[in-house]
Every structure is written in C-alpha cells, then in structure tokens.
Design brief:
The complex is a heterodimer of chains A (about 190) and B (about 210). With about 190 residues, chain A is mainly α. Helix content of chain A is about 65%, strand content about 0%. Chain A contains nine helices and no strands. Chain A is globular, with a radius of gyration of 21 Å. The model of chain A is unreliable at about 1-10 and about 100-115 (pLDDT under 50). The termini of chain B are far apart. The chains are: A mainly alpha (about 190), B alpha+beta (about 210).
Chain lengths: ~190, ~210
C-alpha cells in the first residue's frame, strides 16, 4: 500500500483546526461566562464548555458568519440546557412570557449609601456579591438574556438567534428581568442591613 | 461584624456590578487539548485503521514522501519542519529511549550535553508552568548534531531542538501544523529553536512564550 493511501496528509483537517483555533478559541471567556451563569457552578461550567467546544469543532462547517461568538454561545446554551434538564430539571421550567411581575414585592425604601463611606472597595464587593446572588436566583430565561445583553454586549438580534426566541420576547424578558433583579436586590439589601 | 451598606438598587448596572466569569487557565488548556484530539480523530479514519506504532511509522513515511513529492524545491524552513517532525516522531517511537538523559533537573541535563556538542543549549525546567522537563537527547538535523530537550504536557510530549545559527538579531516565532503536529520555530541569542508537539497549537504557543520568558 502506497503512502498516499495510508495518509492523504489531512491538510483539510489541520487547516480546519487552525481556522477553529483562530476564530473560535478567542471566545472561550464568553463561552465560560455564559456556561457559568447558566449552571451557577464552576465545575459544571467547565464540563459544559469542554463539551461545547468538541461539538463546536464537529459543527464548525455550519459557521457562516464572520463573528463566531453568537454561533458558539448558541452551542454553549444548548449544551448547558441539556445538562440542566438532566441534572437540575427544576432549573428549566417553561416560562410564560405573558405573566406579570408579582405585585407583592416591596418597593424601594432603602437609603443610598453615604458618599463619605471610606470603605469603597468593601462596599463594591458587598454590592457585587448581592448582585451576583440576585442574578443567579433569577429564572434562567431572564438570567440568560441579561447575561448576554449586559455582560456579553450581544445585540437583541444576536440574543434572539442564540436563545431561539423572537426579538420582541428578548426585549420584554430583558425589561422584566431587570425589574425582577432590582426587586430581588432590594429584598436582599434589606435583609443584609 | 456588619457589612457596609451596598449600592442603591436603583443604580444597578449589571455590567458593572455582576461578575464576568473568565475561563480559568486550566480550562483553556484542556479545551485546546480536546479540540486538538478531535481534529486528529477526524483525520484518523483515513489512515485505514492504522494505529499505534504503525500510525507513527506512517507519519514518518508521509513526512519523507511529502518531502519527495510535494517539496520539489522546499524552503529551508519546510525542510527543517519535516526533519524536525521526523526526529520528534522517531523519539516517540522508541519506548524507553525517549531521552538519553532522563531527568527533570536542568542542572543534570545541561552538563550532559557538554562534550557531546560544540555548543551549549540553554536548558530550563518549566514544571511550575505545567511543562516539566523530561530529559535530553541528541539528534541529527540538517547534517549536524543538534540538542533535543523533551518536556511533558500531561499525556503529550514537546520536543525542542536547538542548534547554533550565527546570525544577527532574534527572529520572531513562526508556527505551522504538519500531519497533525504543531510546530514553532524562532531564533534567539544565536540559537535556532524548533518546538514540536502533538498537543494543540495554542498549547505550543503558550509553551514557547513560557520558554522565552524564563
């Protein structure tokens, strides 16, 4: 058997590999950030990201856009949802987009922190902790659009394609998600003080 | 101990107040490895189920064949790439003969080369960065004896070939892939370096950066 039939160089594969490394690998942070916010756990996020990248490589030919990030995030989201359905099915409940926000949540009554507070760093980390917790506690449907919009800076259109929902739903979930987050934060701040 | 009061919820800015979770370095490395393995797995079926040593032999055969058929007038870099890859595969194919001097101690490996070469290759251990030095050996590239240092990266091996190239100035790293292997070459302080590995290109880039920074 001649060498040519043993291994036809595999140049296509390796070209594909370096293209993947060039276009997709730079979005590893984005992939991890979304996976981490969806699974709410470091180890689970790593598992999801690893599986997502193997899938992404397999489906690399399906990438048509110049920017690989929304394409990759859609794969991460699918992988994370599959993982959640299997391991934490209560996290993935269908969302009724027409329901209104609960009216019994208390409104703002909290006084702003004094500007003269010298412990600015401590204050910021305290805020961060509360915001992180409040965001993690939001239903995943709100959490994911907020993360994609606010932390990943994706456009409404990109979020719609990643999450597979209409743009109008993206906008309403963003607005309701922000409101829910604000309310949850108030509740936590009052408990903390 | 009471915590200071947090910011007013009305001022909430998620982009500022929530954490952007960046991928840990360990994940970066494992993803690179997985993708590299996936890339190799895709090209494997074409090898007519040749596995293990046979695959390694085939790789060497292809390197030679590749030089003969496609590289009628190869550049010097192409020549070196093929020679260096063949040397790397050779060292992997001889179990127990990966290194002539087996040591993770740079102060053992470096003196071993003295008297065997007409130059002194720089030897650095990178164990702290996840690339422990495994040893050294001699090989033959471009008609001369060269130093080969081997490092470990989990289940992968990285070979670094070093020989003198007395030219002015340093040359930036150039990378390429060949038959599923990642290669990089650069010149520093009058020495030509070639690094070869079956780990992912990103891992090799990282390795070279560490080596250059040490």
């Amino acid at each position: 058997m001649g060498a040519s039939t043993v291994l036809p160089l595999g140049k296509g594969e390796m070209g594909r590999h370096s293209e993947f490394v060039q276009h997709v690998m730079p979005h590893l942070d984005a992939a991890y950030n979304l996976a981490r916010w969806l699974t709410r756990n470091d180890d689970d996020a790593e598992d999801v990201v690893q599986e997502s990248f193997v899938r992404a490589f397999r489906f690399f030919d399906s990438l048509k856009e110049d920017d690989a990030r929304p394409w990759l995030l859609a794969i991460v989201r699918n992988t994370a949802y599959t993982w959640l359905r299997k391991n934490r099915p209560s996290d993935v409940v269908a969302l009724d987009d027409t329901s209104t926000i609960a009216e019994d949540t208390p409104t703002a009554g909290h006084s702003a922190p004094s500007d003269s507070n010298p412990e600015v760093v401590l204050l910021q980390s305290a805020t961060r902790k509360l915001v992180n917790q409040a965001l993690e506690d939001l239903p995943v449907a709100f959490r994911e659009v907020l993360v994609m919009r606010e932390l990943e800076d994706l456009s409404y259109k990109e979020i719609a394609s990643v999450a597979g929902i209409p743009i109008g739903t993206v906008m309403s979930r963003l607005s309701r998600g922000r409101e829910l987050l604000r309310q949850a934060l108030e509740l936590r701040m009052r408990r903390a003080s | 101990m009471s915590q200071p009061p947090p910011r007013d919820p009305a001022d909430l800015e998620i982009a500022r107040d929530a954490t952007y979770h960046r991928a840990p370095e360990t994940l970066r490395a494992s993803v690179a490895t997985l993708v590299g393995a996936a890339a190799r797995a895709e090209s494997r079926p074409r090898m007519h189920r040749a596995i293990g040593l046979a695959a390694a032999f085939a790789a060497v055969a292809v390197v030679t064949w590749n030089v003969a058929i496609f590289q009628a007038a190869p550049s010097r870099d192409d020549m070196f790439a093929h020679e260096v890859l063949a040397a790397h595969v050779r060292s992997l194919m001889a179990p127990g003969r990966l290194n002539d001097v087996e040591s993770s101690d740079q102060h053992t490996v470096k003196p071993w080369f003295a008297g065997k070469l007409d130059f002194t290759p720089p030897v650095r251990d990178l164990a702290a960065d996840g690339f422990p030095l495994a040893g050294g050996r001699l090989d033959y590239v471009d008609g001369r004896t060269v130093a080969e240092l081997t490092y470990r990266r989990r289940l992968h091996a990285v070979s670094v070939f070093i020989w003198p190239e007395p030219k002015d100035g340093d040359a930036a790293m150039k990378e390429r892939t060949l038959s599923g292997y990642s290669l990089a070459t650069w010149r520093r302080n009058g020495m030509r370096y070639w690094a070869v590995t079956d780990a992912a290109p990103m891992e090799l880039t990282h390795f070279v950066e560490l080596l250059e920074a040490s």
